[in-house]
Write a structure and sequence with these properties.
Elements: E1 9-12, H1 18-31, H2 35-38, H3 42-54, E2 58-64, E3 67-75, E4 80-86, H4 95-106, E5 111-116, H5 120-128, E6 132-138, E7 145-151
Helix pairs in contact: 1-3
Length: about 150
C-alpha cells in the first residue's frame, strides 16, 4: 500500500512534531511562488511557529501513512485561521478541505484568514469553499498584498 492510497487522518499537535511541521510549512510556502516566501528560512518559520504556540495557537496535524503532510493553526478566541499549509506532494487530496472543516467546527461563529494575494492557488481554494473576500491590504510585517477572507459558518 502506498502513502497515496492511505486516507489522511487528523490529530492534535505534539511537541515532537515541531521540526517536521516547520519543514512542511517551508516547502508549501516556497511552492506558492510568492516572492516573500523564497527568502524565508526554516529558522524563521521555527521562531514564528514557536511564537504562535506561545500566543495560543491550537494546531491540528494532517498525516498520511504516518507522515505529516499538513497543518492548521487557529486562534479560536480571536476567530482566526492563522495558518493552513499542505505539503506540495500532498495537495489535491482533500487535506486542506478537511482542515478547513475542522476550523469551521472549532469556530462555529465564523473566522477570518489572510493569504498572499499572489498565491492564486490558495485564493481559488478558499473561494471555492465559500469564503468571501473582505478586503485586500498590505501584510503587516512583510508589506506584500494580502487578501482577507471571511467564513461565516
Amino acid at each position: 500500500m502506498t502513502a497515496d492510497s492511505v486516507e489522511p487522518t487528523m490529530r492534535n499537535y505534539r511537541p515532537s512534531d515541531f521540526r517536521e511541521v516547520c519543514r512542511v510549512w517551508l516547502a508549501s510556502w516556497r511552492a506558492t511562488g510568492v516572492k516573500v516566501a523564497v527568502g524565508t528560512s526554516e529558522d524563521e518559520l521555527r521562531a514564528r511557529f514557536a511564537q504562535g504556540l506561545d500566543q495560543g495557537w491550537s494546531v491540528t496535524i494532517a498525516e498520511m501513512g504516518g507522515r505529516i503532510v499538513g497543518f492548521m493553526a487557529i486562534r479560536p478566541c480571536d476567530g482566526v485561521l492563522d495558518q493552513l499549509f499542505i505539503a506540495p506532494d500532498a495537495q489535491g487530496k482533500g487535506i486542506g478541505s478537511m482542515l478547513l472543516g475542522f476550523a469551521r467546527v472549532a469556530m462555529p461563529n465564523g473566522f477570518w484568514l489572510r493569504t498572499a494575494a499572489a498565491n492564486k492557488l490558495a485564493c481559488r481554494f478558499y473561494e471555492a469553499r465559500g469564503l468571501t473576500i473582505d478586503r485586500v491590504e498590505p501584510h503587516p510585517v512583510h508589506g506584500h498584498d494580502t487578501v482577507i477572507y471571511l467564513s461565516t459558518c
